[in-house]
Design brief:
Elements: H1 16-30, E1 42-47, H2 53-64, E2 68-72, H3 85-95, E3 98-102, H4 106-115, E4 120-124, H5 130-143, E5 149-153, H6 158-170, E6 173-177, H7 186-193, H8 205-209, E7 214-217, H9 229-235, H10 243-246, E8 252-255, H11 267-270, H12 277-296
Parallel strand pairs: 1-2, 1-3, 3-4, 5-6, 5-7, 7-8
Helix pairs in contact: 1-12, 2-12, 3-4, 5-6, 5-12, 6-7
GO biological process, one term: L-arginine biosynthetic process via ornithine
GO molecular function: amino acid binding; ornithine carbamoyltransferase activity
Catalytic activity: carbamoyl phosphate + L-ornithine = L-citrulline + phosphate + H(+)
Length: 299
């Protein structure tokens, strides 16, 4: 059955039951137990900022599903060059079967969804990265199981915010440690509480990882924040995921990539047996394929 939502802009646009079904479908498709097709469906992919994993996973995924993906960068369409975004959305909605957009402003993806007469998927905005959360939850299910505790250590960014809500929906306990000035939007914890989670953020990474099955981090300086580099590096002192922080634990390590080795995570940790990052990267495609099938009505 298709999802009740027409668009996927935030992880909690789906219900916990729908999220569980999405992950079940992703696992079955990955294992080759089912092979749904999208026929000749076309996915328009709008990129305001570049990406390796988002572009390749969606483009390859659509090909594997029997469809077609079309890359639309800032120089390929009128995005930001005089045409209102709502007009672009209206036109695209008459051409393609679905739109995936990787944008800066979250309000822009909401504008796309409000005006495009087709499903819209958030491939990343400054506030949310729900497709990454799907891959993260699939990875945890495969490697740790659903009875897991995850510590988010570092910047309270879009990846972390989506993950906290998604983990609550999946029944995964989450601890959050961020510098005081770089915490998550408090509304994120309110959304997580709606699914029974009681997340109390801390500024102490060691306290957050105590008893954790997984330690999850991401870059401290995201794309477009390069002018904040020196300020952020000072603020995040002590938050690096390294062997010293992980000493005495059996915790696995997650990172959505790309990683700034030597900043938020050390090279030796990323290359160790603790790292689940390559499974996460692969699972972007499998999780998104399940999402595409559900939203676009594959058979």
């Amino acid at each position: 059955m298709p999802l009740a939502t027409d668009d996927f802009l935030d992880i909690d646009d789906v219900t916990p039951a729908e999220l569980d079904a999405l992950l079940d479908r992703a696992a079955a498709m990955k294992a080759g137990e089912t092979d749904p097709r999208l026929g000749d469906a076309t996915l328009g992919m709008i990129f305001e900022k570049p990406s390796t994993r988002t572009r390749v996973s969606f483009e390859t995924g659509m090909t594997r599903l029997g469809g077609h993906a079309m890359f639309l960068g800032p120089d390929d369409i009128q995005l930001g060059h005089g045409e209102p975004l709502r007009d672009t959305a209206r036109v695209l909605g008459r051409y393609v079967d679905g739109v995936m957009a990787r944008l800066f402003d979250h309000e822009d993806v909401e504008t796309l969804a409000a005006n495009a007469d087709c499903p819209v998927i958030n491939g990343l905005t400054d506030e949310a990265h729900p497709c990454q959360t799907l891959a993260d939850l699939l990875t945890i299910r495969e490697t740790i199981g659903e009875d897991a505790t995850v510590a988010w250590v570092g910047d309270g960014n879009n990846v972390g915010q989506s993950f906290v809500v998604g983990a609550a929906m999946a029944g995964i306990d989450v601890e959050v440690a961020t510098p005081a000035a770089y915490g998550m939007n408090p509304a994120v914890f309110d959304r997580a509480a709606e699914f029974g989670a009681d997340v109390e953020p801390t500024t102490d990474p060691e306290a957050a990882i105590d008893g954790a099955d997984v330690v999850y981090t991401d870059v401290w300086i995201s794309m477009g924040q390069e002018d904040e580099r020196e300020e952020k590096l000072a603020a995040f002192e002590g938050f690096q995921v390294n062997q010293e922080l992980l000493a005495g634990t059996d915790a696995k390590v997650m990172h959505c990539l790309p990683a700034h080795r030597g900043e938020e995570i050390t090279d030796d940790v990323l290359e160790s047996d603790r790292a689940l990052v390559w499974d996460q990267a692969e699972n972007r495609m499998h999780a998104q394929n399940a999402l595409l099938v559900e939203l676009l009505g594959g058979e």
